[in-house]
Design a protein that fits this description.
The complex is a heterodimer. By secondary structure, chain A is mainly α. Chain A has two domains: 155 residues, no CATH class; 68 residues, no CATH class. In chain A, 70% of the residues lie in helices and 5% in strands. In chain A, helix 3 packs antiparallel against helix 11 and helix 5 packs antiparallel against helix 7. In chain A, a hairpin with a 2-residue loop joins strand 1 and strand 2. Chain B is mainly alpha-helical. Chain B has one domain: Arp2/3 complex 21 kDa subunit ARPC3 (Orthogonal Bundle). Helices cover 74% and strands 2% of the residues of chain B. Chain B has seven helices and two strands. In chain B, strands 1-2 form a two-stranded antiparallel ribbon. In chain B, helix 2 crosses helix 4, helix 3 crosses helix 4 and helix 4 runs antiparallel to helix 5. Chain B is globular. The two termini of chain B are 33 Å apart. Classes of the chains: A mainly alpha, B mainly alpha. Chains A and B meet through helix 2, helix 5, helix 7, helix 9 and helix 10 of A and helix 1, helix 2, strand 1, helix 4 and helix 7 of B.
Chain lengths: 256, 211
């Protein structure tokens, strides 16, 4: 079965990959907060942030094409929500179109806020992509836990991550079996069969969860899970954190 | 509807995060009380189930397709608290791994669908199924209306957040958002009721608090 791979580039060995996951998480989350806090229309600071992100991607040795492809998948959704903004925001009118008896106005303020939103969401997207492509998901969860995300959430997420592929595989197999037998059937038939597949998947998932739980109990599970935590912050990590925060602050102070 | 980063302003980001965190920690507490140490494996595998189910595309019209969201489905099967925990986990993984919805907007996305959508959906479901006697017909009827309403209510809350943030005025974003989701909700209602109908036939014991 074919999957969208999750941890595709997390095995590379680069400066960014070797950073302590906690430090990396802090750096990229802070980065996103700086991006979001930028005032509308200050595109120079967006350019500076983009430049820093480019350098980070370069250091991480992840192909630019991969990151571009991954980031473009989300852009249609962003455009869908924001495309109306230049037309509906009040302000100085810079263009006027008449289509029949329908009037379209583009305002300067609207255009500014449209591009600001686009820049903010794209740059934040790049931050998340850098984080997830340079860190294994299990390490990321450990980092979250070290950063005080409740343990119960990280445990559920780690289980979820383990079973997403198992269940998706089952679903794809059912779908293949269905498609090979039901060519040309009515739409209602497809909807009904697909719904039944989801129901079957739920029953199987529930039963699987129960047997997983029993297997865990028989191995001594009492609601606690022990994991080895080998994280170690080196001076290199702190130095990197310091440089990035200094860069972000200097952009914020000089450009705004 | 997943809000990306950059669409919400700081006050909305902070308040939706605060609301989501407090509601979710209450839900976690109630789920833990009900499921004890079975909670982690069960919630993990069921979250993976909702995640996988959302990836299944249903034919809609002229080549377009839609998918299940699963808020009311999870709440009817597992109860409102466990249901909202499951949905929140799905949103967290979608945000982290697929960048579907922004990190700063994650609080709002969880609040809209996992908290408001699931909880109000469950209340509506309960009211309708109780008034119809809680039997099979009542469960299906309740689930149909509740899953439609949960999608519409979530889009309503989402529109309000976008307009408070100054992204677009309420009189434009509200009809646009709610209008689209009135249609999306129909799909959600159809799928949810068909799935529940099958579970009722095969394993009715898996439905939460069945009368």
């Amino acid at each position: 079965m074919h999957h969208a791979y999750l941890d595709e580039y997390t095995d590379l060995n680069s400066l960014i990959h070797r950073l302590d996951p906690r430090i990396k998480t802090i750096i990229l989350f802070t980065f996103i907060i700086f991006i979001i806090m930028t005032k509308p229309g200050i595109f120079l600071s967006f350019a500076c942030y983009a430049l820093i992100l480019m350098v980070l991607i370069l250091f991480s040795r992840i192909p630019f094409g991969f990151i571009l492809k991954k980031s473009l998948v989300v852009i249609p959704f962003v455009l869908l929500i924001s495309i109306s903004i230049p037309f509906i925001k009040n302000g100085r009118i810079i263009a006027d179109y008449t289509l029949g008896n329908f009037k379209l106005r583009v305002t300067y303020e609207g255009l500014m806020s449209f591009f600001t939103i686009l820049a903010k969401s794209y740059l934040s997207l790049l931050c998340m992509i850098i984080l997830i492509t340079t860190t294994k998901f299990s390490e990321l969860l450990k980092a979250f836990q070290a950063l005080k995300l409740p343990r119960i959430i990280t445990l559920i997420l780690s289980f979820m991550y383990r079973y997403i592929f198992v269940l998706q595989d089952e679903l794809m197999k059912m779908q293949q079996a269905k498609e090979s037998r039901s060519i040309g059937s009515s739409r209602w038939f497809h909807i009904k069969t697909l719904s039944n597949m989801i129901a079957v998947l739920f029953i199987r998932a529930y039963e699987r969860a129960e047997s997983v739980y029993l297997a865990m109990c028989s191995r001594g599970f009492r609601g606690e899970m022990r994991t080895i935590n080998r994280f170690e912050i080196k001076t290199k990590d702190l130095f990197f954190l310091f440089i990035i925060i200094a860069l972000l602050l200097s952009v914020k102070i000089t450009v705004g | 509807m997943h809000i990306p980063d950059g669409f919400l302003n700081t006050p909305v980001v902070i308040s939706t995060w605060a609301l989501s965190v407090s509601a979710l920690s209450y839900s976690l507490k109630r789920t833990k009380e009900a499921l004890k140490d079975k909670m982690v494996p069960l919630m993990g595998v069921v979250s993976a189930f909702i995640f996988a189910a959302q990836m299944l595309n249903f034919p809609v019209m002229g080549g377009t397709s839609g998918h299940l969201i699963g808020g009311v489905l999870a709440a009817v099967l597992l109860g409102p608290y466990a249901g909202s925990v499951v949905l929140a986990c799905v949103f967290i993984v979608q945000c982290l791994i697929f960048q579907d919805g922004g990190l700063t907007a994650l609080g709002a996305n969880i609040f809209n669908m996992a908290i408001i959508g699931t909880m109000t959906g469950y209340i509506i479901y309960r009211m309708i199924s109780n008034s119809l006697g809680g039997k099979k017909r009542g469960i299906i009827a309740g689930a149909i209306f509740a899953s439609w309403a949960s999608v519409v209510i979530a889009s309503f809350v989402c529109a309000i957040e976008l307009s408070i943030s100054g992204t677009s005025p309420l009189n434009i974003v509200l009809p646009a958002m709610v209008g689209v989701h009135v249609l999306i909700g129909i799909g959600e209602a159809v799928i949810t009721s068909l799935v529940l109908g099958f579970v009722l036939k095969v394993r009715p014991d898996l439905i939460y608090n069945i009368a």
